[in-house]
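Two folds, back to back.
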Amino acid sequence: MYQWRKFEFFEEKYGGKSAIPEEVCGNITCCSSGRGKVVIGCDDGSVSLLDRGLKFNFGFQAHSSSVLFLQQLKQRNFLVTVGEDEQISPQQSAVCLKVFDLDKMEPEGTSTTSPDCIGILRIFTNQFPEAKIASFLVLEEAPPILLIAIGLDNGFIYCIKGDIARERISRFKLQVDNVSDKSQCSVLGLGFRVDGQALQLFAVTPNSVSLCSLHSQPPKRQFLDNIGSSANSVTMSDRLELIMGRPEAVYFYEVDGRGPCWAFEGEKKLLGWFRGYLLCLIADQRNGKNTFNVYDLKNRLIAHSLVVKEVSHMLCEWGNIILIMTDKSVLCIGEKDMESKLDMLFKKNLYTVAINLVQSQQADAAATAEVLRKYGDHLYSKQDYDEAMAQYILTIGHLEPSYVIQKFLDAQRIYNLTNYLEKLHEKGLASKDHTTLLLNCYTKLKDVEKLNVFIKSEDGVGEHKFDVETAIRVCRAANYHEHAMYVAKKAGKHELYLKILLEDLGRYDEALQYISSLDPSQAGVTVKEYGKILIEHKPVETIDILLKLCTEDGEFTKRGTSSSTYISMLPSPVDFLNIFIHHPQSLMDFLEKYTNKVKDSPAQVEIHNTLLELCLSNDLNFPSISQANNGVDLRLMAGPGMPKVESNGKLTSNGKDLNKERDRFERREKGLCLLKTAWPSDLEHPLYDVDLAIILCEMNAFKEGLLYLYEKMKLYKEVIACYMQAHDHVGLIACCKRLGDSGKGGDPSLWADLLKYFGELGEDCSKEVREVLTYIERDDILPPIIVLQTLSRNPCLTLSVIKDYIARKLEQESKLIEEDRRAIEKYQEDTLAMRKEIQDLRTNARIFQLSKCTACTFTLDLPAVHFMCMHSFHQRCLGDNEKECPECAPEYRAVMEMKRGLEQNSKDQDRFFQQVKSSKDGFSVIAEYFGKGVISKTTNGTLRSGNTSSSSGF
């Protein structure tokens, strides 16, 4: 033990000149500490309490003769004393036990006070004979219950348990040693051990160490050792171990027997335990000096060593060690702070001792790491890089990694740096830069084995202990593609896995197989990102995967939870259009296969629009993104007789590339078929954008599509405009025959537009004009004068073209004129007759010659009624209606009703104009209204309907 290093981790407090206050008069017999005070008992029966700094607080007379033992309780401010009082009778012992409540003071005299004595107990009774007390110990079980153990010189221990203040106690005794020689059986040391519910008591005699189990009834005694110790050389550690000092060593005892022992030579006068340190007052027999040592057993060093005078008592209070000398001088020793102790060790380069010290005293991790860092810096300065790195590794989590990394980068110690970075990743404290650096170390060392361990660790922690994207990037840069792929696959980074397969390795089949193994959502994302590369190299296989993704019959659907749920989550083909940007033929194949499988897709309008754009384009490109030539697309100029115009603006002849022309023809056939099938007759609107379809047909000069769309939309004028633009006269006339028949819902005005077209054509079209005139004449579409004015604009037409038409029209008009003249003459004759009759009625008398009643045909007799219409009736046959003739009244009322109806119609302007608009001859409708006298006046240009006056004379 003399080889243990000595340090001055403690220092003397109060300048080393402390002493017991003068107020303490008697000789000190016992001491105790606790609750911030030091309690001293003297041989005159007084007890004194000292505050911090050994200042006298107060004192009182506890016993009349002498205070033998005392103990300050921890949980309550109670003081338990054992002392000698006046002997009441010869049969009773003078030794008694008292309990004082230091919080309650009783006035005694005028200036002094003493604490309240709450209990007095005689220790020795008839059942417990009197003996010399060798040791005394109090245990606070559960206040106010106390357990008091009193060791005697006859080998017995008297135990008193209970509430002394209320005199509710129980007594029992334990026999520790039964030896005839009383000097060998005295119980000199006691120690309580409380472990949960277990309550045990250590007892030390000069020749034995025993352990009594008090929780069992009766208490059981266990023999631990056959060697003992003298008085005051017994204490308890904070780990509930009994510490016993003998001249040759210091022994530790557990419940199962002797534990470790430490060979410190010299007589152990006093033993103590302070904050993990062993306090030992050793008397050297050779020189007669007393040495006070503080041992750090864990670190095997002497924390303090001091030669002292004769010590009577040793206490621990206020964080200090208090040594009371026989001459009443006091030595207070306190522990230095950790920083001071470490500075002392650092100056001597005792880093290992410093590390052990901070670890044994349970310093915080940051302080420990700082010591390790300094030790590492010391080893690094000595170029002991391996040991330095070992210390730096222990600082991970507290020391900034860049501090260590910079040192070993400068020293070019890549092996040590690799080790540090590995530990950094194992503890999950590595950043992206650390991962990059570690992988670069592996690749520079070409240490594939370690790289495999780091990347492909089987414990499953690898995906969490480094940044995945950084690892993949570094492995790719170093051409460790397999490792990068492993990390990407394990971490679920499907995009990065495919990026390596496609861009670095070009393994397209494997990439397609990997995509097929993914979940539908993940597969869709990866195809969107890398579909362009796959379409370029594996178009057929990529289209198959897309079809499986977008339809219901693929493997992806089988892995779904339910069919109905999955259908609503199916991706749309529109989402993948961008991957076909440079491969329109593949896009067309994909969309055609999709439309063949799925008939009611939610995105069918967008799909049909895209298909139409592909099918109708001249060069199988996307016309919507083609570049126009000076703002005009040259393809619009393409006609049947003109050379084709490509998207790049170059002209090619019709027969230059037969394969290209054949492909274009087939695509246009598909486009026309799509236009028709996507617009069923039962739907009002087609399954594509009509406006876009028309634009595509016009841009690509697809006349068949335009004709179908215009005709389907009932835009007949636009249909014939297409024929006119193409100078297709045969088709134009055939179209008018089909669309201009009003009996089949056609528009007869098409013939007028057709005639106008031929009139402005500027070339000889006599044959066509004659055919058109036939239909105009048949349906009486235009007046002859309009026909003449229209055809007169074409200088190439001769009069012979319309001579027959004009002759027939003139003959027809002549007949109509002759018929109108005859009708006029008849109406004039009827009018003259009516006027003559009216005049006759007004000026001449009427002679009624009827002899029979018109109603009953009997002979007419009076009273009779005669009407101006020459009808006569019996008055009884007329009844109450004598104002109108029953025979003529119905006809008259019908005429008047018709007149009122016409007058009412004349007020309904909308109906009047509707009849004018819908009639072939609007003039005849207006003439009819005037002829019936409905429209009588015009005021301020507004037609008014009025009632016509009857001149019938009824």
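---
second:
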Amino acid sequence: MASILDEYEDSQSSRHPAQRHTRLSGCNIGITHSGFVNVRLEEEKPIFNKQRIDFSPPEKINHFAICNNQLCMSLGKDIILRIDLGKPDQPNQIELGRKDDSRVHKLFLDPTGSHLVICLSTNECLYLNRNTQKVRGLSRWKSHLIESIGWNKLLGTEANTGPILVGTSQGLIFEAEISTSEGSLFSTNPDQYFRQVHALEEDGQPAPVCCLEVERGMESKYFIIATTRKRLFQFVGKVPEGSEQQGFSSIFSQNQDLLPSFQEFPVNMGYSEIAFYTSKLRSSPKAFAWMMGNGVLYGQMDYVRPDSLFSNVQVWEYTSDIDFSFNKPISIVLTQFHFLLLMPDRVKAVCTLNGQVVYEDVFPEKYGPLKKMVKDPIGGLVWIYTEKAVFRYHIQRESRDVWQMYMSMNKFDLAKEYCRDRPECMDIVLAMEAEHCFQNKRYLESAKCYALTQNYFEEIALKFIEAKQEEALKEFLMKKLSNLKPSEKTQTTLLVTWLAELYLNRLGLLEFDYSKNALFQETREEFRHFLSSAKHKECLFNNRNTIYDLLASHGNVEDMVYFAVIMQDYERVISHHCQHDDFGAALEVLSKHCDEKLFYKFSPVLMQHIPKKVVDAWIQMGNRLDAKKLIPALVNYSQIGSTQQINETIRYMEFCVYELTVKEEAIHNYLLSLYAKYKPDSLLWYLEQAGTHSSDIHYDLKYALRLCAEHGHRQACVLVYKIMELYEEAVDLALQVDVDLAKSCADLPEDDEELRKKLWLKIARHVVQEEKDVKKAMNCLSSCNLLKIEDILPFFPDFVTIDHFKEAICSSLEEYNKHIEELKQEMEEATESAKRIREDIQEMRNKYGVVESQEKCASCDFPLLNRPFYLFLCGHMFHYDCLFQEVSPHLSTYKQAKLEELQKKLAAASQPTKARHRLKEDEAGNLGKGQLSREQIKADIDDIVAGECVYCGELMIKSIDKPFIDPQKYEEEKSSWL
């Protein structure tokens, strides 16, 4: 008993031929050419897999119930066996303790697996809770033979069933509730109440309530389904929100005035059974199957329909081998696509799609007749028992062959839905759907389906060509093209070219048919969309010459231009516009796509016809254009062109120079030539703002000088001479224009007084000799402080009297006298400064410092007077050795080597006094010489070590960026802190 779930498979009973033959292969479908080869390397596992439980009951099994992995069975007369399938090794056996002849009539287990109702043949009912070992009587249920219970799936818990419905053998429907609480002192029964709510009849007589089912829909709407032997009843009603605990009596009361909705069938086999299929846990059933007299009533559950809960109802009649006299169906179980009928010696699985028996399993006679078939609504397993054995069915991949059935029914969408993960089956369905559409002259749909199959491309294409369905052929090619991989370049090229030809043929037929102008425009838009497809852009680009040839052969100029734009072949587009004298359109293409190379190529042609628009486009391009590469076009048409072209050329050059700040010498030279030739007023302004130093300007000075000289712009030449620092030439030329201009040039060589004086003498000579203006000559003396009266006197003629120079001579003498006084004052100040410096030097020689006895070293903080020390002017005091340690790390390599050398010399000089008896006479003589220079050595050491305070001097400033801890010793120091 403890090994009830230790499973083993019986010897595999041979499969029923029906299951084997219902699987269709590709050859049965009639598809001759498919790209898939469907090879099954091993036999597929069956959908319905039976296993016998290794369990030998101590007594006969009378009844069986299972739900939520809780298994309950009635053994013998008064034994109830309970097993939690999660703990199969802990069975629980309970004795009813009945001494009368009563037997268990039926077992009812709620969806939670917690509440077990035991109905006895003596019209008594017992209750057993999952968490107790005590069987309790349901006193209010007495005197009724219970045939069915409708559990409350919404409110039922492990402790309370909530309101439930109970059907009896007399057609009565009661509402009841069972609770595990002990109740009050005077009421210990688990049944809370038990009241009648309705009664069912057949032909005016009470009929047993075979099945009861309670479901809740939307908006607090409840559905109650009840069956008798040949009638199916529906009760629908609303229960106010929050009042579900009050029960279902209100639903039945809503139907008292009207006969309840029911279906009746003529054949009565003494009982009926209804089964439901639920796709997800804790959801409402999706379908039902009612096993009644003349067959199985199957349909879908529709909770929205106002008139009936059932939809798509159909009756599958029993097969001819079922005879009610000896092998009536016993039980029914509904799965997603099948219902299982339990016969006395076998199980039949019938497909709900076509009513065919797809599986039949015959049980050996040694186990006895089959008694009942039960499905666990939570676990989904199907259980069958006889008096001696228990069997279990695993149902797996039930939908794997459903696609074939839907396909045979021409329900291709559903067929594709159920073979999504099986490409070989999907291919068969698509091929069948395509052929079906083709036969029904739905050519476009057929083309779409054919494009998704692996059938031979050539056969399908010829099929549409023979049928003269060019539109369908185009659709097929488009769909096929969209499904190609990027690596399939050859196939893509073939399809793209073919489609282009089809589109062009279509456009050629529609172009001159004015009644189909709308269709023509639509086709053209579709064709252009095809040409601009990003997915096929690479293919179209690689084969653009072929497409151009096709377009040209059809004379389709507009689409050729459009295609050239798509391919970014703007050169072809612009050439086309220029050939047709449509220069505005050509410039529009240039401006839109901003290709610099095309600007350089086509600007000469465009500049000849639309100069203003071209220059506007150039300006809009800004820095993206290299103005130097546009000069050939500008030079060509500025020489032979109109005034407008010249003005536009100057406008663009000015934009380059002043807006873009172009520094190319060619640009500036060209603008300079244009100014010199056509705009002399702007020439001088340009030269002035271009800069006054040769490093600032961007034009060729020699070229500018020659250009200005050729066109007689002398003032501009003077400006160029000034920039070239040819001041003599500038002054000479300026004197021909204006004396003031010459004066401005004479002051330019500020660092060369001799040259300045020479230039001013030239000006003075010009004024005296050429203009013969004595007053103006005197003004030259006042303008330049380098000229004296004696410098310009030789230029005056002999007849000039001294009266003209009296003021100038007096002014010159006064300046000489003033200069002498300044030199005298400077000499006195220098003498006084030298005297003060000598006094400061004498004072420094006599300066001293006082060191107290308690003073400490600034480095080691020990008393200072214990060892030799240094005292600095800043007040810091150091021991000799402490100062040496502080200074040494900061010294350069050269000074460190020098210091080591001096220390060795000092040690050698000190050696004779310490070990004179060990040295030879000649060595002693040498050391004696060293002793004479010992003071000098110490002085040199002091110069290096004590030249400045280590805390206040330059060494401290240089060490500011050095870390406190040596990087090489950082890790060692870091570890010492941890």
